[in-house]
Every structure is written in structure tokens, then in C-alpha cells.
Amino acid sequence: MNPPITFESLREANHQRHQEWANGNDLPLSFRGVELAGEVGEACNELKKLERTRLGLVGGKTDLTGLQEELADVLICVDLIAMDLGIDLASAVQDKFNATSEKYDLSTRL
Ligand SMILES: [Mg+2]
Q1: CA of 94 to the centre of ligand 1 (A)
Q2: pTM of the full predicted structure?
Q3: Domain hosting residue 98, numbered range
Q4: Which of 2, 29, 75, 82 could connect to 87 by a Cys-Cys bridge, CB 3.0–4.6 Å?
Q5: Radius of gyration of the chain (CA)
Q6: How many domains does one find in the chain?
Q7: What are the pLDDT digits (tens) for 81-102?
Q8: From the CA of 42, how far away is ligand 1's center (Å)?
Q9: What spacing in Å lies between the alpha carbon of 73 and ligand 1's midpoint?
Q10: Is 74 part of a structural domain of the chain?
Q11: DSSP readout, 26-89?
Q12: In Å, what is the CA distance from 55 to each residue of 61, 65, 67, 95?
């Protein structure tokens, strides 16, 4: 079994795979944005199929595996954008999570 990942290990793996995938060449943010939108669309399609099953509608069905894979793709794409722009995603998530809790007077903090 693989060790649990962290934001840092995802970033390192994304950086390493980018060297293989694109020979280390910079990709335009427009490509990254379309890539992310595509993966969000794929995740939404999996949600649609799950809802179709729940509502008893005819059409293609899926299980949680498909959604799990697409949500993973979304997260990977988000990290690729953050990588390209030098954003520390762990800090960004922590700051934003805590700001939202503070805004709505909720006690949960990261
Ligand atoms: Mg996908």
C-alpha cells in the first residue's frame, strides 16, 4: 500500500511528471484552465449518473469509483495550476478555510 499523500508529495509528483509529460516546457494557463474545466465537467457527469441511478431514470449508470477518479483529476489539475504560479496550495487552503469559518462565525479551523 502506498503511503498517504500530502500537498507536498502531490506537488513533487506533479512536478516530476510534468518533466516527462511536457519535457519540462511551460504550458499556457489557458491550457491548464481548459484542462481543469474538462475534469470538473467529467466529475459533474459522474454526479449526473449517480443522480440518474438515485432517481431511477434510464441511461448510463456509474458508481462512486468514477466520481472518485474524476475528483482526483480535479485536485491534480488544481495543483498543476498552483505549481505553475508558485502558489503554496496547503497554505492557500488553510487560509481560505479559516477565513470562511471566521466570516460565518464557525469554530472549526485548519
Ligand atoms: Mg478525468
Answers
A1: 26
A2: 0.92
A3: 7-103
A4: 82
A5: 17
A6: 1
A7: 999 999 999 999 999 999 999 9
A8: 6
A9: 5
A10: yes
A11: ---HHHHHHHHHHHHHHHHHHHHHHHHHHHT-SS----HHHHHHHHHHHHHHHHHHHHHHT--H
A12: 11, 19, 17, 38
- 69 is a domain residue: yes
Note whether residue 55 is domain-resident. Answer: yes
Q: Is the pLDDT of residue 3 over 90?
A: no
Residue 74 has φ and ψ, to the nearest 5°, of -60, -45
CA of 101 to the centre of ligand 1 (A): 31
Residues with C-beta atoms within 5 A of ion ligand 1? 39, 42, 70, 73
pLDDT at 24 over 90: no
pLDDT at 12 over 90: yes
Cell numbers linked to 24: 519540462
